[in-house]
Amino acid sequence: MGRIFVVELEGRSYRCRFCKTHLALVSDVFSKAFHSRRGKAYLFNKAVNVNVGTLEERMMLSGLHTVGDLYCCCCGQIVGWKYEVAHEKSQQYKEGKCVLERVCIVDEPDFCSEFYIDTCPTVTVSDSEDA
Ligand SMILES: [Zn+2]
């Protein structure tokens, strides 16, 4: 109970802005044309290391959807939402997909094989030594 299994993504990914946990692959971006109340949002084919909150019906610009908030499994921040059901036929491509809000994720630049999950929220930059 309460044990967290963190999935590490291979390849370029987006991470939680708050705890740097991997959330989704850049290659899984379905659309970057989404908007949330807090600004830009991206639609992903899938996201990892997230928990889906209570499902609720939400009226959106594109119609009625049954959605659940997505919480980062490490820090508990809301990072977006998941479409469970789209009631409009034209919107059903979204079902099962996840939206991550741009303000909640950070773009990971090309990342080498040497990486680890940094659970500490402080950013460490230690590349200032003179050669
Ligand atoms: Zn997090």
From TrEMBL:
Residues in Yippee domain copies: 12-109
UniProt key word Nucleotide-binding: no
UniProt KW Signal keyword: no
GO molecular function, one term: metal ion binding
Entry keyword set: Metal-binding, Zinc
Superkingdom, natural source: Eukaryota
GO cellular component: ubiquitin ligase complex
The protein's name in its UniProt record: Protein yippee-like
Pfam families the UniProt entry points to: Yippee-Mis18
Originating species: Eucalyptus grandis
Lineage: Eukaryota, Viridiplantae, Streptophyta, Embryophyta, Tracheophyta
InterPro entries: Yippee, Yippee/Mis18/Cereblon, Yippee_fam
Family: Belongs to the yippee family.
